[in-house]
Amino acid sequence: MNRERTLVPLVAVLLAAQLAGCEPAERRSRTTPAPPPALRAEGEPPRHDASPGPASAEQAASPSGEHFALRHAATLRAGPLELRSPHRRLAHQIRGSGHTHCAPDHSGIDAAAQQRRLMGLGPDHRHHFVWITAHDFVAPDPDVPGVQHMFGVEIYTKRLEARQSPHVLALLPDGALADPAKRPFGVYELDVQGASSAIARAGGLAVLAHPSRYSPSLEAVKAVDEHLWALEILSGSTDPDANAAFVDARLSAGKYTCLSAGGDIHDEDYKLTLGYQVVDVAGPRPTRDELFEAVRRCNFFACAVKGVRHGPIRRPALELRDGGIHFSSNTVLRSVRFVGRGGEVLHEARSTARASYSPQIGDSYVRVEAVSADGAARCYSQPTWIVQRRQTP
Asked: Which CATH number fits domain 92-305: 3.20.20.140, 3.40.50.720, 3.40.50.450, 3.30.428.10?
């Protein structure tokens, strides 16, 4: 198999037009530089060194092995490599925004009305669940029939020197903290590390919202431990390639991180389909606990479409078999890219509904980017983690 190697620059333009995220960015071919050395705290076991290569078993076990998704991942042995993926194809897929606001938080639309309009987008775009993530407070369940309310909050973390405040989403398992009058994680009190740890202690999932906007440096994001469960690769009008730079920097540093998506919806109509999770579930109407567990295991794709006039990517799937990573959908795609360390495109297939890639020694992770034939829709897989197996003498 030909390995077309192109490098996605780690420094991307951070300001993007409203819908630029749905157009594939051109990536320049050039010699791949050595990845930056991983940051680690004093006493922390070493991760990848600067030379390309898969993680050893010890490196994968700490801290990356502590990520919940890897503990429950599907595993495939492929020669000297072991592949680990959170994706498991189940009988149903359901859709929901992972980042949604409601009144009185920068929105004139209350939680019930927000959920009704997302549920009413039609069969191709209907949301079956909605994470309501108002700033600072956890919104109570408005009990809208036909849509699953998921509890959450978007936290303003400590201001950086430039005065911007990185935003961290807490996706929560239940309504124990739901109260519009309370600020369970404070306001401007915790840094990204502190917020991620506090969310984990509360049983939630910490997501760095729109990484290319308001966030700390790539080095600072890489340094946060495994309590930072995911980064938003699709977040409203932000540029997904700019967000991907943060994702790839973290993955390249040996920190397994899931990819999330949300519309960052306030009052706008144009954001209703600009970010959502497509979750594999066993039944068509999972309970809140079942849905939270599926998301926690990262058994979902991060997807978006320009608007309801365009069709989504239907039934994305990723499987580990026959020594490789196999992606498929029920939609003919413009391109399917397999992306690895540092954002390098390892292989690209065009004008197809399915594609595969066999990881090589030197790959430490592989994630998939799929773009629809009209360029209006896209989906991102979760990373497949790659470790080199010990050879028995």
From this structure: 3.20.20.140
